[in-house]
Amino acid sequence: MYEPIKNRSNHQYIVDEIKRMVLLEQLKVGDKLPPERELAELYQVSRTSVREALKSLEAQGLLEIRQGDGNYIANHLEEKSTDLLSLVFVLENCKMSDLTWLRYSFELNSLAYYADRKCEDEINRFKDIAERVKNATSYDELTALDGEMHEYIFEIEENKLFRFLHSSILTLYRENVKFANAENVPWYSKDLEASKNYILDLLDAIISLDMDRIKIEITAHYDWASEEISDTYSEFLDSLKANNTKGMY
Count H helices, E strands: the chain? Predict the structure, then answer.
């Protein structure tokens, strides 16, 4: 399984070989790799090359290095993919509206799956959220319920690749919102009851299982969210740049 490599000075060959064994399921999450010394002997390379390869695999989220215990195959790829998405978000000068509408496309797909399945447990979960939205007495409570609704929309989809990508997008979105919230950005310009109605309109459509209605309401919901969040966030970032203040990254 571990065979000598041709280029003994290039740690990338070791990285590629470990990845190949994972793809072939010769190595699985939780499996422990041989010690550095043994890997160096197996691949006929220096321990420095092995160490560089292990650090590279850890940085990519495929390896967990436990000091005093060993090196284990891991799955921290979601965290790393969020980091990469964050860099793309910044380097490509993306806007919060870009992220908002990317979320929209994923949630629309998940809701189409939900409406087609007509699962009673899922319908009841949305009914429960709707009831609590009606009884909410503060923006903090309403914000938490809105987040719970979106989180559950995300959980419905069983496709693991879909959930992986959506989770990275959702994490980046939340980090941006959390950062701006910490700086006291006024997210809501509407009164509490009006904000409740925006959320309830979508929940009522979801509970109805009418996909045409769901499309209308989730589009309206995201139009509202994009207007409320993205414009304010853009102004906030402009103020950060003007004051030469370090942002979240």
Answer: 11, 2
Say if residues 57 and 38 touch (Cβ distance below 8 Å).
no
Q: Are 85 and 168 in contact (CB under 8 A)?
A: yes
SS3 71: strand
71 bridge partner residues: 65
Please provide residue 171's backbone torsions phi and psi, each rounded to the nearest 5 degrees.
-65, -45
User: CA angle, 68 as apex, 63 and 73 as ends, to 5°?
Assistant: 15
Cβ(214)–Cβ(115) under 8 Å?
A: yes
pLDDT tens figures, 152-202: 998 898 888 877 787 788 777 777 665 544 444 444 556 888 889 989 999
- Spell out the residues 6+ positions from residue 189 whose beta carbon is closer than 8 angstroms to its own: 228
Q: Any idea which residue has 């980091």 for tokens? A: 83
Give the C-alpha separation, 214 to 143, whole Å.
Answer: 21
- pLDDT tens for 18-57 read 999 998 889 999 999 999 999 998 888 888 999 999 999 9
Cβ count near 158 (within 10 Å): 10
Region at 123 (left for phi over 0; alpha for psi -120 to 50; beta for the rest): alpha
What is the crossing angle of helices 139-156 and 192-208, to 10°?
A: 20
- 217: which 2 tokens? 């309401």
Which tokens sit at 69?
Answer: 């215990």
Rounded to a whole number of angstroms, the distance between the first and last alpha carbons of the chain is 41
> 99 and 188 in contact (C-beta within 8 Å)?
no
Number of Cβ within 10 Å of residue 107's Cβ equals: 23
Residue with tokens 């490599």: 5
